[in-house]
Amino acid sequence: MTIDKLSLFGLFLMLIPERYSTLFDTQNRLPRRHLPLLTEANREFWQSGKTGSLQIARCQTCSTFIHPPSAACRNCHSRDVRAEKVSGKGSISTFTINRHPWENDLTTPFVIAIVTLAEQPGLNLMTNIVNCPIDDVTIGMKVRVIFKNIEDVWLPLFEPDPIN
Ligand SMILES: [Zn+2]
User: Fold this and answer.
1) Judging by DSSP bridges, how do beta strands 65-66 and 89-98 pair with one another?
2) How far away, in angstroms, is 80 Cα from ligand 1 center?
3) Ranges of each domain in the chain
4) Helix, strand or coil for residue 116?
5) Helix or strand or coil: residue 149?
6) Can you tell me the distance from the alpha carbon of 61 to that of 76, in angstroms, rounded to the nearest whole number?
7) Is residue 89 a contact partner of residue 117, using CB atoms and an 8 Å limit?
8) Residues in a beta bridge with 55
């Protein structure tokens, strides 16, 4: 591989929001997750499950919750942003069912959903709906967060909320 090709490959790795180590993890034969690249701005979100509670970045100036996490508020541009614990409850705004095995050993079908958190209109997370038969998933369904820990990331997934 020439220097130019190596540079381009390095650039490619920097541009995609996932990690070098997981891209080349050939030992893990479980359905592979492409883990997010942890940054100063998003670390508390991706690791909040370690505490058992979902935390979302919130502007300390105008109180707007911000997701995906950002170092600055999208509403008032304040840089006084800190992660705050939220209820972990929300509802499914939309979803789709993936039936295609995009990668070896990917377990299908599964539900990809946009969940709107209870704390704020439009506070949306893209996630998976789990612990629920696929045919029972509906728009508007009340859900609650659970976490799947892989390496140093706690992926927030959602399951039906029995108390709603
Ligand atoms: Zn703000």
Assistant:
1) unpaired
2) 8
3) 43-160
4) strand
5) strand
6) 8
7) yes
8) 85
The model carries a pTM of 0.79
CA distances from 66 to 4, 44, 120, 127, 158 (A): 38, 13, 10, 16, 19
- The residue assigned the tokens 């506070």 is 123
Give residue-wise pLDDT tens across range 70-124. Answer: 999 999 999 999 999 999 999 999 999 999 988 877 889 999 999 999 999 999 9
CA 75 – ligand 1 centroid, Å: 5
**Minimal CA–CA distance to 148: which of 159, 140, 138?**
159
pLDDT of residue 104: 79
What is the Å distance from ligand 1's center to 145 Cα?
25
Q: How far is CA 160 from the centre of its chain?
A: 17
CA 141 to centroid of ligand 1, rounded, Å: 30
